[in-house]
Specification:
binds calcium ion; disordered N terminus; 400 residues; globular; 6-stranded mixed beta sheet; single chain; alpha/beta; two-stranded parallel ribbon; Alkaline Phosphatase, subunit A; disordered C terminus
Length: 400
């Protein structure tokens, strides 16, 4: 796949939203639930993963559009997130690390939530959206209210087992299974806060853009035991290949030193088969834990009769290696680390289906992906605008 198309898939998300909101600005404007899931590769049933138990995200996918060839801009949290949220490439916002704020290079950039805010939406952030710490975690122009749980440093929200609550370093065990409720960890707390926020948001006259950021399945793989118990560890497949690609340059197989430093990970990084199995089990347990939180939000939208007027987007900030190719975590350019889940569920399935068909037939065949697919450049092209507007107009006519 050409690199430009990788950029295009994430940009499509933004462009669809921008133009949908423009067209419907004076009519019936949908709410937006924007779900960011940290370090989630497409380990989901709806992506054909036969191990993953993700009934709720699969339920969302069944009424939306699943993008099978979505790729992040850079397989690192902050560059990926800030790129998607600004609609600009990492090279443009000059963010390739975890410490730089995009407004240093592009102070006047209009982010996705900021655009909604500028067009009459109430925008709210709960959990990890821009980034989980430091300067990049904050962007006041994007939000109508103070973000909640955007930076969390409390070890008690990260670990639950007594042995892991001891110590001062942030890295303790790389995984834990504890007999605790969902909100013993941060993501259950974020979900609780999001459900509470919906109560307030529904009372408002203006539509909402609610961004909810879950931190699992990012390391450490800590989840309530009931999600571990969904899986038989011995039946979770091992990595198909554990060798570096033959002939690959050393730089290409250099990965993030993220797993190292946890108390149960050997200093030399050589993992036993037992530990590999545990980590892969832990990742899937965390995916199911997050799936349950997504299910709670979907149920709450249904209960409040908000589903019919809420566009839902679910995306992962980058992919992940769980021992494949001898690599762990992210920060490399192989498929496992760059491919992401992206699901857009409109108020009805027709919206996303028609929009995607128009995009793929009209735009992708006519444009130079190396030039067109970036932020405002992409949006300002009459051709691209047309191909997005057409399905929106059709939908508007059908709905009127
Ligand atoms: Ca991440």
């Amino acid at each position: 796949m050409k690199s430009g198309y990788r950029v295009a898939l994430c940009m499509l998300l933004i462009v669809c939203f921008l133009h949908i909101t423009d067209v419907q600005a004076s009519a019936n404007r949908p709410n937006v639930l924007f779900l960011a899931i940290d370090d989630l590769r497409p380990a989901l049933g709806c992506y054909g993963d036969k191990t993953a138990l993700t009934p709720n995200i699969d339920r969302l996918a069944s009424r939306g559009m699943v993008f099978n060839r979505a790729y992040c801009q850079q397989a690192v949290c902050s560059p990926s997130r800030l790129s998607l949220l600004s609609g600009l490439r990492p090279d443009t916002i000059r963010v390739w690390d975890l410490a730089t704020h995009f407004r240093e290079a592009v102070p006047d950039a209009v982010t996705l939530p900021q655009h909604f805010k500028n067009h009459g939406y109430h925008t709210l952030s709960i959990g990890k959206i821009f980034h989980g710490g430091g300067k990049p975690a904050k962007d006041p122009p994007s939000w109508s209210a103070e973000p909640q749980y955007d930076i969390v440093r409390n070890a008690k929200m990260r670990y639950a087992l007594p042995k892991n609550l001891k110590g001062k370093k942030s890295k303790r065990s790389a995984a834990e299974a504890a007999d605790v409720p969902d909100n013993a960890y941060i993501d259950g707390v974020v979900c609780d806060a999001s459900i509470a926020a919906l109560d307030e948001l529904q009372k408002r006259d203006d539509p909402f853009f609610l961004a909810v950021g879950f931190r699992k399945p990012h390391l450490p793989f800590c989840a309530p035991r009931k999600y571990w118990d969904l899986y038989d560890r011995s039946k979770i497949p091992l990595p198909v290949t554990t060798e570096h690609p033959r002939g690959a340059p050393e730089l290409a197989v250099r990965s993030w030193k993220e797993l190292e430093g946890y108390t149960d990970i050997p200093e030399d990084g050589q993992l036993s088969l037992k530990k590999i199995r545990e980590l892969r089990h832990g990742y899937y347990a965390c995916v199911s834990y997050i799936d349950a939180q997504v299910g709670r939000l979907l149920d709450e939208l249904d209960r409040r009769k908000l589903s019919k007027n809420t566009v839902i987007v679910l995306w992962g900030d980058h992919g992940y290696h769980l021992g494949e190719q001898g690599l762990w975590t992210k920060a490399n350019n192989y498929e496992w680390s760059t491919r992401v889940p992206l699901i857009i569920a409109g108020r009805n399935n027709q919206m996303s289906s028609v929009a995607w068909k128009a995009f793929s037939k009209t735009a992708a065949s006519q444009l130079d992906p190396n030039v067109m697919f970036q932020g405002q450049t992409f949006c300002s092209s009459p051709c691209m605008t047309l191909c997005i507007y057409i399905p929106v107009i059709i939908l508007k006519e059908n709905n009127s």
